[in-house]
Amino acid sequence: MPKRPWLVESDKPSYQVLKWIGGGGFGQVFKVLRGGQTVACKQVHTDNAEAALDEYDHMRSLRGAPHIATLHDGLEFNRKTNSLSFFMDYYKGKDLDRQVQMLRGAAERFTESQIIEIGYQVAVALEFCHSRNILHQDMKPMNVLLYESWNPVTQRDVPDLYVADFGIASHVQTIGTRLTGQRGTPGYEAPEIRGQGYQAAFSQKSDVYAFGCILYRLCTLGDPVILDDIKPSDIPAEYSMDVLSLISSMLSSDRDERPTAVQVKEVLAALALKLFSSTSATCRSCHREFISNKALHKHLKKTGHGRKDALPAPTIDAAKLPIQTGDGLTIRGVASAPTQYHFDHDCEDDQDEVSDPSPCIVCMRHFKTKQKFFKHLHGVQHYRSPNYVSKRRANDELDVDAEKADKRLKNWVVKDMDRHE
């Protein structure tokens, strides 16, 4: 087996396995306790020792890079199990693909700001890899890890993301193309390497194509198929044309026409500034952001959401946005620009009681305390059950016969939601 000066051989591992996380034919990943610290351990059989050592070397050269999984010191060879083990930070939020599956199961979707921030963080990681002449060669949502648990439906803030799994990555001496065996995951393979066997010409633009497939999956929640030269209008997602056009350019069959990771990052940064400009607006019903009132009105007309639902997005000083240059690139927090909730202004003395805001399901107002929340419900009769409210209004205010009330319940609920009394 190839030797490394930092390779430690023993019959007993230095860690305690807590649980199995995942794995495949190349290796298994475990959550372990090592030196009093919870970390992730990748265990690889010595049949794949050369690839495991290459992955360790790649991650060592990228250690400290923004949005790339952090490698720990120590590479162990267990003579009893005939396996190699190395260690990384343990990320509680699992992988990005699980968020996609959760949203698809709940019939929800990512907001545009969340997609932009996710894309920016991945672009920063990919840019750093390419600046070190490292090709990832297996970009996909399963290899993007979340620092902490996240529910994109209830939490608009995107946590820190980290690109991981450099098991089939390659280092090139110069920026350009590397002839390798066919690598990657079906659905995320660029056309120049798809079906080419051992003559696959992999380049930085091949990583960009796979990155475009990731953004496509975030927008559509569907599995990417062959997406070569897909037009923005053919992407089945209701996001701005700027975002869809960027994805379309990344999925060009001609790799020379694809943008670089640096260019993708710059476009996403510009979109973030544009999205949170003073002209943007938000749909109050579904909380989607739009770059202009025109785009919002088009959405309202198509979905039937009330026009009065829209809240202007907060004005953000571009100079104060955490978009930096250099190795410390980050856009963390752009998607979490303060939301203009309708808090009760009478609650200023209750700052110590503030917890998660309680929403009114009828008018979508938020309150800092349960006392204010229930006072609102009883005051305007916005109870949690729209059916109860609709029956009461149908009998008391619309003055209709009880026999005909049920026929008008559905129409009334829509009108009441639009009025947001």
From TrEMBL:
<dbReference type="Pfam" id="PF00069">
    <property type="entry name" value="Pkinase"/>
</dbReference>
<keyword id="KW-0418">Kinase</keyword>
<keyword id="KW-0862">Zinc</keyword>
<dbReference type="InterPro" id="IPR013087">
    <property type="entry name" value="Znf_C2H2_type"/>
</dbReference>
<feature type="domain" description="Protein kinase">
    <location>
        <begin position="15"/>
        <end position="271"/>
    </location>
</feature>
<dbReference type="InterPro" id="IPR000719">
    <property type="entry name" value="Prot_kinase_dom"/>
</dbReference>
<keyword id="KW-0547">Nucleotide-binding</keyword>
<dbReference type="GO" id="GO:0004674">
    <property type="term" value="F:protein serine/threonine kinase activity"/>
</dbReference>
<feature type="binding site">
    <location>
        <position position="42"/>
    </location>
    <ligand>
        <name>ATP</name>
    </ligand>
</feature>
<keyword id="KW-0479">Metal-binding</keyword>
<comment type="similarity">
    <text>Belongs to the protein kinase superfamily. NEK Ser/Thr protein kinase family. NIMA subfamily.</text>
</comment>
<protein>
    <recommendedName>
        <fullName>non-specific serine/threonine protein kinase</fullName>
        <ecNumber>2.7.11.1</ecNumber>
    </recommendedName>
</protein>
<dbReference type="InterPro" id="IPR050660">
    <property type="entry name" value="NEK_Ser/Thr_kinase"/>
</dbReference>
<dbReference type="GO" id="GO:0008270">
    <property type="term" value="F:zinc ion binding"/>
</dbReference>
<feature type="domain" description="C2H2-type">
    <location>
        <begin position="281"/>
        <end position="310"/>
    </location>
</feature>
<keyword id="KW-0863">Zinc-finger</keyword>
<dbReference type="GO" id="GO:0005524">
    <property type="term" value="F:ATP binding"/>
</dbReference>
<keyword id="KW-0067">ATP-binding</keyword>
<keyword id="KW-0723">Serine/threonine-protein kinase</keyword>
<dbReference type="InterPro" id="IPR011009">
    <property type="entry name" value="Kinase-like_dom_sf"/>
</dbReference>
<dbReference type="InterPro" id="IPR008271">
    <property type="entry name" value="Ser/Thr_kinase_AS"/>
</dbReference>
<dbReference type="InterPro" id="IPR017441">
    <property type="entry name" value="Protein_kinase_ATP_BS"/>
</dbReference>
<keyword id="KW-0808">Transferase</keyword>
